[in-house]
């Protein structure tokens, strides 16, 4: 896997209690492999890895990437 892809990360800041951050696996069968629950004001830095191909966010949060910023849960 390219080092550039492995160095990608996102910053997630919860705007409410109970924001779920879920890591999804790579491969033929996409599955949940890790989850975290954030409370209002908590910040998580998540990285894409050889095992993580996607990150799902449930709840209201600010998400920052090198491509820009967006808000989930609106």
Task: Write up this protein.
The chain has 74 residues and is mainly β. The protein has a single domain (3-72), classed as Sandwich (Immunoglobulin-like). Helices cover 5% and strands 57% of the residues. The chain has one helix and seven strands; from the N terminus they run αβββββββ. The chain has one helix at 3-6; strands spanning 9-14, 19-25, 32-38, 43-47, 52-58, 61-65, 68-72. The strands form two sheets. The protein has a four-stranded antiparallel β-sheet, with no helix packed on it. A three-stranded antiparallel β-sheet has the order 3-2-5, with no helix packed on it. A hairpin with a 6-residue loop joins strand 2 and strand 3 (32-38). It is globular. The N and C termini lie far apart (34 Å). The mean pLDDT is 87.
Secondary structure: elements and pairs:
Elements: H1 3-6, E1 9-14, E2 19-25, E3 32-38, E4 43-47, E5 52-58, E6 61-65, E7 68-72
Antiparallel strand pairs: 1-4, 1-6, 2-3, 2-5, 6-7
Radius of gyration: 12 Å
Encode the helix/strand succession as letters.
HEEEEEEE
Helix content: under 10%
CATH topology: Immunoglobulin-like
Determine the structural class based on helices, strands and strand pairing. mainly beta
CATH architecture term: Sandwich
**How are the strands of the largest sheet arranged?**
4-1-6-7
> Which stretches are low in confidence, meaning pLDDT under 50 for 5 or more residues running?
none
Query: What is the count of helical runs?
Result: 1
Quaternary structure: single chain
Q: Can you identify the CATH superfamily? A: TRAP-like
- Beta-strand portion reads over 45%
Shape: globular
């Amino acid at each position: 896997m390219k080092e550039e892809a492995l160095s990608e990360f996102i910053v997630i800041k919860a705007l409410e209690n109970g924001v779920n951050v879920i890591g999804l696996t790579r491969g033929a069968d996409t599955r949940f492999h890790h989850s975290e629950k954030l409370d209002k004001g908590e910040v998580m830095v998540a990285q894409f890895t050889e095992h993580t191909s996607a990150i799902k966010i449930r709840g209201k949060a600010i998400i920052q990437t090198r491509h820009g910023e967006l808000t989930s849960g609106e």
